[in-house]
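Consider the tokenized backbone below.
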């Protein structure tokens, strides 16, 4: 998943980049509102963490502009302003959650993961698709209850597809959400990851088509048979 962080405290910004990357996120970062707004409009974020007290353009204005421009990805406000009035203003501007500094990173991570789940229609960390289950908190993947070992990029591809079950996801979209901008878009590495996932996710009686290929369009995680 791809997170946008807009924070003007350089030490905190660097810490958040390191911690989110350690958790497997692709991170875009900015230390002022102007740069952050540009990245929020031009980069394919899945979720954003935005400080309110930013130079050049305030965090409040960044949020309002993104919402007015039609960007719907979840936004968490991270700020030292702890009054209830500030919280109301942030939420009214279009934010989905609010965390006051100082904070503990595990709480921030839990809130971000919860926003990601809700935005894709899931209420718990456990996401299932037929015989495959994925836990976004522990990053464990199981096939028919059996734990499956995935590489970090295999997990990222599967997580994105699981979060968007039933949707057609292009190779370009997958690439944008797991790699930085300078990645070779003509590479067949996504095809390789999907091929490996199919083998690892195959159940005893499976037809091995839980991840479907739609020629010229991309991939689709087959929705659960109960849906």
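A designed sequence for it:
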């Amino acid at each position: 998943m791809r997170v946008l962080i807009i924070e003007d405290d350089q030490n905190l910004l660097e810490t958040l980049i390191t911690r989110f990357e350690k958790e497997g996120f692709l991170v875009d970062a900015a230390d002022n509102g102007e740069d952050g707004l540009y990245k929020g409009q031009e980069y394919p974020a899945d979720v954003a963490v935005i400080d309110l007290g930013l130079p050049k353009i305030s965090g409040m204005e960044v949020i309002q502009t993104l919402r007015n421009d039609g960007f719907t990805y979840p936004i968490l406000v991270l700020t030292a302003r702890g009054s209830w009035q500030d919280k109301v203003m942030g939420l009214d501007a279009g934010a989905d959650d609010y965390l006051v500094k100082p904070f503990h990173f595990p709480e921030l991570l839990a809130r971000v993961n919860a926003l990601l789940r809700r935005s894709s229609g899931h209420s718990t960390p456990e996401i299932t698709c037929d015989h495959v289950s994925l836990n976004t908190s522990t990053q464990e993947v199981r096939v028919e209850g059996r734990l499956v070992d995935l590489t970090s990029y295999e997990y990222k591809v599967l997580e994105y597809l699981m979060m968007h079950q039933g949707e057609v996801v292009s190779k370009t979209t997958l690439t944008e959400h797991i790699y930085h901008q300078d990645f070779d878009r003509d590479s067949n590495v996504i095809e390789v990851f999907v091929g490996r996932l199919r083998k690892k996710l195959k159940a005893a009686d499976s037809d091995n088509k839980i991840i479907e290929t739609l020629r010229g369009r991309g991939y689709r995680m087959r929705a659960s048979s109960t849906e």
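DSSP finds eight helices and twelve strands in the chain.
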